Amino acid sequence: MIYSSSGEPHDLKHDPFKAIVAPRPIGWISAVSAKGEVNLSPYSFFNAISSRPNIVMFSSENRKDAVAFIEETGEFTCSLVTRALAEQMNQTSAPLPRGESEYAHAGLAMAPSRFVKPPRVAASPAALECKLLSVQQLRDLDGQEVPRWMVLGQVVGVFIDEAYVRDGRFDTAGANPIARCGYADYAEVTELFSIARPPGG
Flavin reductase like domain: from which residue to which, for each copy (predicted)? Predict the structure, then answer.
């Protein structure tokens, strides 16, 4: 099967794009408005894009509160989503009125950050504290703006629960993070394998 993604008919029940580009890490983004309102929301269009310096990005379909708040104050946090926190993460995706706390709605506690004002999810085993680099509205092949916004942030602080540090390394499988797949599906990390890179790579 091959088809044009510009609207050519196919026999699939749903667009498979998100199922093919999977699994995707979830950016559980916390931001604070200029008025002090706190927002917490999950984004599956999220990833690390640089290691020196550490830079992350997320993309929002429609201009949601997280994007607006980050533009206002220039800071955000990303908390790691684990299997134990999956249901509460899902609750924070609810379309609450602006200013209503997703933390309270999902029964989550906030923990203070060290380098930025937005809090992190207290129960998460790891979080990144970020300063805004840029917000960009995306365009299609015709150069037309689409209602999608990409946010880039530089990591200025890292929180790790010491219970998940093994031999000086973060125990990813022990933390049991989850990732977004297609449709209503998720994946969870329960074990890892290693492959040595070729010499000189």
Answer: 19-172
Q: Which residues neighbour 193 within 8 Å (Cβ) at sequence distance 6 or greater?
A: none
Q: Which residues contact 100 (CB under 8 A, 6 or more apart)?
A: none
Query: 87, 97 in Cβ contact below 8 A?
Result: no
Tell me how far apart the alpha carbons of residues 177 and 172 are, in angstroms, rounded to a whole number: 7
The answer to whether residues 37 and 43 touch, using CB atoms and an 8 Å cutoff, is no
| Residue length of the chain | 201
Distance, in Å, from the CA atom of 56 to the CA atom of 50, rounded to the nearest integer, reads 7
**Tokens 């129960």 sit at which residue?**
123
- pLDDT tens, per residue, the chain with 201 residues: 888 888 778 888 888 999 999 999 999 999 999 999 999 999 999 999 999 999 999 999 999 999 999 999 999 999 999 999 999 999 999 999 988 899 999 999 999 999 999 999 999 999 999 999 999 999 999 999 999 999 999 999 999 999 999 999 999 999 999 999 999 999 999 999 999 999 986
Highest CATH level, class, for 17-188: mainly beta
* Phi, psi angle pair for 72, to nearest 5°: -70, -40
